[in-house]
Amino acid sequence: MTREAVLDSRQEILRTAARLFQQRGYDATSMNDVAAALKLSKGGLYHHFQSKDEILFEIMNHAMDLTQERVLAPVGNIADPEERLRALIRLHIEVVLSPRDREITVMLHENHPLPPGLRKRINQRKKEYVHYVESLMADVQKVRRAKGSVSPRAAAFALLGMINWIYQWYKPEGNLQTNNLVPQFTEMVFGGILA
Amino acid sequence: MTREAVLDSRQEILRTAARLFQQRGYDATSMNDVAAALKLSKGGLYHHFQSKDEILFEIMNHAMDLTQERVLAPVGNIADPEERLRALIRLHIEVVLSPRDREITVMLHENHPLPPGLRKRINQRKKEYVHYVESLMADVQKVRRAKGSVSPRAAAFALLGMINWIYQWYKPEGNLQTNNLVPQFTEMVFGGILA
User: Helix A116-143 crosses helix A152-164 at what angle (to 10 degrees)?
Assistant: First the structure.
């Protein structure tokens, strides 16, 4: 197999496993279930991943890769802080609602305790994202001369809560979709519910 | 035992089970573990709860009772919509950060799939709370003559995301505590991050 084909089959395993974990729960899904859903032998699956915890970690790590590629990389090219924040809100919501990757990014919120070494690596990546958003909030508040009643850190946590919570209520057939959610959440971040 | 003593011991079981579920994960915690932590015989535990799913359901149900008693009941007495929303934000954050009940309310976000009948009952109670907040947002926007770029529903989901996400980042030793978080989140809801 080429390196691309190996990468593709790893990602297919992660996507299938993520879907099963959400449908049945992480603990109720066995390595056998994952292998069967992929029409792989158990040996074939273990060739790629040594344990279910490794699969969960790699799903979470892939979700952070997606955030890096589709949110942080593009906004890094935008000089104006306010435009950068507007782009981050839009791109982060797009990743969270992406039909292809929704099952991957949702797994960032799985409560199953990972082995300490793996948990530390994911938490480090999550922390870096929080710090990026916090520092962006500070830049926006500075150029827009905010009155100062909201700290950049509280603002960052509020924004991440608004966006990361979407998976709890989102319905593919509902009225709130990316196209109308992005402008509403953006308005709220800049002007609150009275905007 | 009096009715009060039975209620107390049920609540002690729920609180202990919630703590174990969070430390070890829901699936990794057995009924034996719960009984041992309470110094109860397995029979003593099964006298109160027939299964682990029933315990999880009752934890979630108790969390919704706390929301009813400590958020919805008190705000129901406030006539002015803006004051009612300010009180709801404060009281909801206080419930989420209550040292005594934090382990109970966090379990509302446990992803383990409950049997359909139980899941339906919890989802119904969660939905009623969302609808209450949505209708309160509409009232506030009306009296404050909001410009109309944010729908009450998107505003309700944003607020619930901000507050319910707190458990993901909150640290008892951190700088953000109830006393400074409440005014900052309130400012953001009414005026955004530039307030």
Answer: 120
Q: Do A25 and B112 touch (CB under 8 A)?
A: yes
Instruction: Say how far residue B60 (Cα) sits from the centre of its chain.
Output: 8
The amino acid occupying position B124 is Q
> CA angle at residue B61 from B33 to B14, to 5 degrees?
25
Q: What is the CA radius of gyration of chain A?
A: 19
The interaxial angle of helices A178-191 and A152-164, nearest 10 deg, is 160
Give B154's contacts in chain A (Cβ within 8 Å).
176, 180-181, 184-185, 188
A27 pLDDT more than 90: no
CB within 8 Å: A112 and B25: yes
How many angstroms separate the CA atoms of B108 and B114, rounded? 12
Record the pTM. 0.93
pLDDT at A103 over 70: yes
Q: What percent of chain B has pLDDT over 90?
A: 87
Name chain B contacts of A60, Cβ cutoff 8 Å: none
Q: What tokens appear for A73 in the block?
A: 């990389």
Chain A hits for B109, CB-CB cut-off 8 Å, are 109, 111, 168
pLDDT at A1: 61
In whole angstroms, what is the distance from residue B80 CA to residue B91 CA?
16
pLDDT at position B195 = 83
For the cut 90, the answer to whether the pLDDT of residue A9 exceeds it is no
Look at residue A7 in the predicted model and tell me its pLDDT.
65
Taking the C-alpha atoms of residue A118 and residue A61, their distance in angstroms, rounded to an integer, is 10
* Residue in the structure block whose two tokens are 């993520």: A18
Closest CA to B60 of B118, B13, B99, B12: B118
Contact A161 B161 (CB under 8 A): yes
What residue ranges define each of the domains in chain B, with the CATH number in brackets? Answer: 1-50 (1.10.10.60), 51-191 (1.10.357.10)
Cα–chain-centroid distance for residue A12?
A: 17
Q: What DSSP state is assigned to residue B173?
A: T
CA atoms within a 13 Å half-sphere pointing along the CA-CB vector of A194? 17
Rg of chain B over CA atoms, in angstroms? 19
CB pairs under 8 A between A and B: 167
CB B185 within 8 A of CB A154: yes
pLDDT of residue B28: 87
